[in-house]
Amino acid sequence: MADFPVTPEALTPQWLSEALGFPVQGFEVARFGEGAGMIAMVTRVLLTTGPGNPASVIAKFPTPNPTNRSIARTYSMYAREVMFYQGIVDQVAIRAPRCFFAAIDPATEDFVMLLEDLGHLRLGDQVAGCTLAEARAVLSAVAGLHASTWRTTRFPRVISHNNPAQRDGMIYAFEVGWPAVNARFPELIPDSARVAGEKMTGAVGRLLEEMCRDPVCLTHVDVRLDNLFFDGDEVVFLDWQSVCTSAPEQDVAYFITQSVPPSVRGKEDLVAYYHTELAGHGVEYDLARCRERYRLCALYLMCFAVSIAGQLDPGNERGQALGRVLLGNAMSALDEMDAFALL
Questions:
Q1: Cβ partners under 8 Å of residue 150, min gap 6
Q2: What is the distance between the alpha carbons of residues 322 and 254, in angstroms, rounded to a whole number?
Q3: Is the N end or the C end of the chain the one with fewer CB atoms within 10 Å?
Q4: Which superfamily does CATH assign the domain made up of 8-116 to?
Q5: Nearest to 260 by CA among 143, 145, 144, 133
Q6: Domain 122-342 is of which CATH architecture?
Q7: Per-residue pLDDT, 32
């Protein structure tokens, strides 16, 4: 049994004081609205404490939703994020929220994390999209992460993205989501994508194998605007629940093809920009190879878009807008680069 609180109701001023390292006389838990923390329960804890101490922190706990909890367990999402904050975050060149406390029970995967509250910063919005300057800032940041972990062997506990759970999960998600997105968003599916319905599930394993061939590095995996805070020219990356090793282009392709609006994407060769940033960190890497893997990763990541857009609640207005935007962005990008020909 975990010796730390695993629900907001189990928090106490004494435990918060010990975990945070400064006295907490009292607190109030404020829950976030619909759509926040689907895989984990995310709350804001308002603190009564002394001057100079944070007035609030973000507390993450296991979700009470049994279906989402099962997903988290299948992909070891809680364990991955705790591992990242316990032993990786200080060794990589990227900004994440400060972690005050992180612990997990390996047997049950009950966990708790206390993170820096960045509510004063501007949170990205995948529905609204981003500017070219913001896109460049995100790609510069991920280039730093990738360069600082290029071909690294420092993190033996970090698994490859090419693993049986990931492969089987993506095949299942596509099989469920593809009929749904064709029914809900038929106008977003180009003719070139029709082949995906027949061949995508059979290609997932091959795509994963190609993506995870050398060179690989540490990848965030969920680089989308809803997981990013903007602090001036700096970007802060949230939700490290999927951290793994994979092709660096996985982060690049996910962000460009699903978060960057086509009107912004067309203003600059963002793959070349990312490659230049990577080279600026001293990484020697062929641009043609980078483009090839970007195209392959983008095709595989269509499974993410199909899964999300196909399973979002039709009654949730923001969810429907999100599904339409990310699916539309992905399909137009894949069509432009003739990625479906890879099938």
A1: 215, 217, 248, 283
A2: 15
A3: N
A4: Phosphorylase Kinase; domain 1 (3.30.200.20)
A5: 133
A6: Alpha-Beta Complex (3.90)
A7: 76
